[in-house]
Amino acid sequence: MFGIARSSRDRALRATLALAAATVVTLVTGCGALGSTDSKASAGTGLEKTTLKVSILPTTDLGPFWLAQDSGFFKDEGLDVQSVVAASGQASLTKAISGEADIAFSTYPPFFIAKSTGAADMELVADATSVNAKTNAIVTVPNSPVKTIFDLAGSKIAITAKNTASDLLTRSVMQDHGVDFGKVKWVLIPLPNIAAALQQGEADAAYLPEPYITQAAKTAGAIPVIDINTGATQDFPLTGFGATKKWVRENPKTLAAFQRAMQKATHEATNDRAKVEPLLVRFAKIDEDTAKLLTLPGYGSSLDSRRLQRVPDLLLQLGAIPSPIDVNTMLGPQPGK
Fold first, then answer.
1. Which of 30, 49, 68, 240 is most open to solvent, judged by the fewest CB atoms within 10 Å of its CB?
2. What is the Cα–Cα distance from 162 to 321, expressed in whole angstroms?
């Protein structure tokens, strides 16, 4: 009888131990499940991280970026790329500096100004666009006193902000033609509001990129005073992608995957406009007619130091930075190098 009782106790003990072991396994497995999904996925792909946040602007310059998302090029590289919309290039840069985004899209001046002021140690990781014929212009409207570039002296010119591409390229073109910009009244207006400001006489002329040139022509009868793609600003490097040096050093494989996807998308966007137009309607929020009529910028993805050196050189010449910057000190690693 005592043997039977002892046997029952042994069976109960074994059951308790088995249950405890199962509980430990469950807890260990559960802890793994509660860990970073991104870390697990990264281990499988060899990337430091697979979820990538990119701060962007709703502009035609991002045609290849949207193509890479829509066509699955990022996904093919093991990346889940998420867009973080910013109000301006400077705001986009700020998101990368603060860690809200991994990579920032912007016109080039904010990257170099941040370097010059010590606000951030940024590296350029991919090119985006250059000025193309008819993609950026100083425009006016029929009832404006400005008829030619020489009328710009002493006029009211709308730009988005000081020391931005709109400011620097406008001043450079005026300087090329011997027009004094020292007495210009610069009117700071967001791009979507410039056409209305021209109509209402708040500005005599304005710097506009596409798609705003085409939109302003339709809504306000805007006409170009001069194309930016001339003289010192012909084929000028306009926009690109950058990240903090710290992020670049910590995520080389993730960065390379992003760059490969962008290279593929840029090649397709450059060779097949039909793939870009519907993406501009969806993401840049422009109508189909404008998407068909507008002139696309010069898309590119590879960074060339000699070409990019034009940007800090112009910034220095126009007093936007106090001392020279060597572009080579700001170039991140490039694919295949």
1. 30
2. 12
Mean pLDDT, residues 268-276: 95
pLDDT digits (tens, 9 = 90+) for 89-123: 889 999 999 999 999 999 999 999 999 999 999 99
Cβ(158)–Cβ(205) below 8 Å: yes
Q: Does the residue 240 lie in any domain?
A: yes
Distance from C-alpha of 108 to C-alpha of 118, rounded to nearest angstrom: 16
Same domain, 102 and 144: no
Closest to 129 in 3D by CA, of 59, 58, 179, 194 = 59
Supply the DSSP symbol for 331.
B
Give per-residue pLDDT as tens, 43-76: 456 999 999 999 998 889 999 999 999 999 999 9
Q: 145: domain range?
A: 136-233
Last residue of a domain, one of 233, 262, 281: 233
Query: What element of type H or E holds 38?
Result: helix 37-45
**Of 208, 233, 258, which residue is a domain's last?**
233
Q: Residue 158: give its domain's CATH number.
A: 3.40.190.10
Helices (H), 125-234: 165-176, 194-199, 212-220
Res. 38: pLDDT tops 60: no
**Is the Cα dihedral 62, 243, 301, 297 positive or negative?**
positive
